[in-house]
Write a structure and sequence with these properties.
GO terms for molecular function: ATP binding; dTMP kinase activity. The chain is an alpha/beta fold. The protein is built from 8 helices and 5 strands; from the N terminus they run βαβααβααβααβα. Bound molecules: adenosine-5'-triphosphate (ATP) and the ligand Cc1cn([C@H]2C[C@H](O)[C@@H](COP(=O)(O)O)O2)c(=O)[nH]c1=O.
Length: about 210
């Protein structure tokens, strides 16, 4: 496989979507069709993964069992890897994904308290040790991310946005542990700066990678 795979991670409201929108504009000029932007749960041109997204994020299922949730994210990811990411990399594309397996380890492993290692093991069945080349983490404290969502994005609130601050603090701590364990893969960007500065820092970091 010859392309490059970069994932974007961060707590809810960190700014991934906003930053990616700007980065895509800059990259499209040089990459054109060789750029694939995708997301989890779900995935570009991936109806099965997107159907799982609809179920797992729907506020209609507030009482979903934690392990069911973890399995759904892993199933969606498997489909995403097999049908979207790997075929694109085989065509030498640059693949940018808004979230990947680190989200499961942070949200289900730490946030839901299923356990870091348990969720990693579960996901190894899905990913078969297929990791991103680099992971950009937008570092925003959960209080700030949730405040942004509540103030600015009332229309798109999903099931996990509605979880408690304590849940999101555990997620954040999970991410910090992942960064500590994988210092070579993670690039940490201060996401609490004004958006243009976050975009610029991300852009400079990405230019070194691509
Ligand atoms: N640096 C920033 N400063 C202030 N507000 C921001 C910043 N970045 C993004 N926002 C705002 O915060 C909200 C959440 O941003 P965005 O949807 O990009 O985050 P996200 O990481 O994709 O969130 P989620 O994972 O929950 O989808 C939006 O209303 C966006 O305009
Ligand atoms: C991949 C993945 C995601 N999540 C959570 C994180 C967010 O709360 C939502 C996705 O919403 P977004 O607006 O598209 O970022 O799902 C998770 O808990 N586990 C995962 O593996």
């Amino acid at each position: 496989m010859t392309g490059k795979f970069i994932s974007f991670e961060g707590p809810d409201g960190a700014g991934k979507t906003s930053v990616l929108r700007e980065i895509i504009q800059r990259l499209t000029v040089a990459y054109g069709d060789q750029l694939l932007v995708t997301r989890e749960p779900g995935g570009a041109h991936n109806p099965v993964a997107e159907a799982i997204r609809d179920v797992v994020l729907s506020p209609d299922y507030p009482a979903m069992d934690n392990k069911t949730e973890a399995l759904l994210y892993a199933a969606s990811r498997r489909e995403h890897i097999q049908q979207t990411i790997k075929p694109a990399l085989a065509q030498d594309k640059l693949v940018l994904s808004d979230r990947y397996v680190d989200s499961s380890i942070a949200y289900q492993g730490a946030g839901r308290e299923i356990g870091f290692e348990v969720v990693l093991t579960l996901n190894q069945f899905a990913i078969e040790d297929f990791w991103p080349d680099r992971t950009i983490f937008l570092d925003v404290r959960p209080e700030i991310g949730l405040q942004r969502i509540q103030e600015q994005r009332q229309d798109e609130i999903n099931r996990l946005d509605l979880d408690s601050l304590e849940f999101h603090q555990r997620v954040y701590a999970g991410y910090q542990k992942l960064i500590q364990i994988n210092p070579a893969r993670f690039i940490v960007i201060n996401g609490e700066q004004p958006l243009p500065q976050v975009v610029e820092d991300t852009w400079q970091a990405m230019k070194k990678e691509i």
